[in-house]
Design a protein that fits this description.
alpha/beta; 13 helices; 8 strands; 8-stranded mixed sheet; 316 residues
C-alpha cells in the first residue's frame, strides 16, 4: 500500500514538473530587454514621423494651391471689382525718386515697384549713390545700369549715378548720413519729387550701404526737411524663408503690408531679364536669386513719417 502511494506521489510530481517546464518563460536578460524597448520606441517614432510628414505635405499642398488661386485672381479681369484682391496698392504719384546704393539694386529689389509706377505713367528718377566699383568694374557696371534701366522704362536722362570718393562701393566703408541726406534732399527739391522710394533700416540683404540710405532718409524726416507733398516708402525686409518662396509669399504680403506691387508672370520675366543685363554680377547664387526671390515678383513697402521714425529709433 505504501509503495502504491509513493508511486502515485512520484508520478504526480513528475507530471507537475513537466507542466511547469511547458509553461515556463525564461526571463529576458537586461540587454535584451533594453534592445526590445529600443526597437519598440524606434517603430513608434517612425510611424509618428510618417504621419507628421504626410500632414506637412498636405498643408504645403493646400497652401501652394491657395497661393496660385489667389495669384490668378489678382490678374483676372474681374479683380478690379474685388477690392480684397488688388495687385497693387501704391500712392498716386507723378514723379518718383528711387534711391539705391549700387548698380543692380534697382532690378534686384525694386523691379515690381518700378514697373507698376511706369504702368501708371509715373516718371521714375533713379539716384544711384555709387558706381559699384568694388571689384574695379565701375565702367562696366555703369553701362549695365543704363541697359537695365532702359529695359524697365527709365529714361537715360532720368538716371543719376554718383562717383564720390566718400560714397565708394565698399561694405567696410561707413557712408556718412549727412552726405547721403544732402544728396537726397538736393534731388527731391530740384526734381519736384512727390514720392521717395528706398531701403528700410535692414537693407533687404543687410548691406550697410543700403541701411545708410534709410538712416539718411530718416534724418530728413526727423528734421522736417522732406517736402510736405512728398511721401516716403521703404521696401520691407522679410525673413529668409519668405525671401525665397516667390509668389508663395503673396498671402502674407496682402495680410501684413499696407503698400505693395505684385507683377504678372510675364512682367516678372521682364524684371528677371533686366537683372540678367547686369552680367558682371551673375554669379551662381544670384542666378538662384533671380529664380526664387519674391523681390522679382512682389514688393511690399511701408510709408514712414516723422512719428514712425521717432518710434523706431526709440525701439532700437
Amino acid at each position: 500500500m505504501k509503495d502504491n502511494v509513493s508511486l502515485l506521489e512520484k508520478s504526480e510530481f513528475i507530471y507537475n514538473e513537466e507542466l511547469v517546464q511547458k509553461i515556463y518563460i525564461p526571463a529576458l536578460e537586461p540587454q535584451e530587454e533594453l534592445l526590445s524597448y529600443y526597437q519598440f520606441f524606434r517603430n513608434q517614432l517612425v510611424i509618428y514621423l510618417r504621419e507628421t510628414l504626410d500632414h506637412i505635405l498636405l498643408v504645403v499642398f493646400i497652401y501652394t494651391l491657395v497661393c496660385l488661386i489667389l495669384y490668378k485672381l489678382l490678374f483676372h479681369r474681374c479683380s478690379q471689382w474685388l477690392m480684397l484682391f488688388r495687385k497693387c496698392r501704391l500712392p498716386q504719384t507723378n514723379r518718383a525718386l528711387l534711391v539705391t546704393a549700387h548698380p543692380d539694386d534697382e532690378c534686384m529689389f525694386f523691379g515690381p515697384t518700378i514697373l507698376e509706377l511706369r504702368r501708371r505713367n509715373c516718371r521714375v528718377f533713379l539716384l544711384c549713390l555709387s558706381e559699384g566699383n568694388y571689384g574695379q568694374r565701375g565702367e562696366e557696371r555703369r553701362q549695365e545700369l543704363w541697359n537695365a534701366c532702359e529695359s524697365l522704362g527709365i529714361k537715360p536722362e532720368d538716371i543719376t549715378l554718383l562717383n564720390a570718393t566718400h560714397l565708394r562701393d565698399d561694405p567696410a566703408l561707413e557712408w556718412k548720413t549727412v552726405t547721403i541726406a544732402n544728396q537726397i534732399l538736393k534731388y527731391l527739391e530740384s526734381l519736384d519729387i512727390d514720392l521717395l522710394v528706398t531701403f528700410d533700416k535692414d537693407g533687404i540683404s543687410g548691406h550697410p550701404n543700403h541701411s545708410a540710405i534709410y538712416y539718411a532718409t530718416a534724418s530728413l524726416c526727423l528734421a522736417g526737411l522732406i517736402p510736405s507733398k512728398c511721401k516716403v516708402l521703404t521696401l520691407e525686409t522679410v525673413n529668409i524663408c519668405r525671401k525665397y518662396i516667390s509668389v508663395l509669399d503673396l498671402p502674407l504680403t496682402l495680410l501684413l503690408s499696407t503698400n505693395w506691387a505684385v507683377l504678372s508672370w510675364r512682367s516678372r520675366r521682364a524684371v528677371q531679364n533686366s537683372m540678367r543685363l547686369h552680367r558682371s554680377q551673375l554669379v551662381w547664387f544670384r542666378k538662384l536669386y533671380i529664380i526664387f526671390s519674391r523681390y522679382m515678383v512682389i514688393n511690399s513697402l511701408r510709408e514712414i513719417n516723422k512719428s514712425d521714425v521717432e518710434f523706431e529709433i526709440l525701439d532700437s
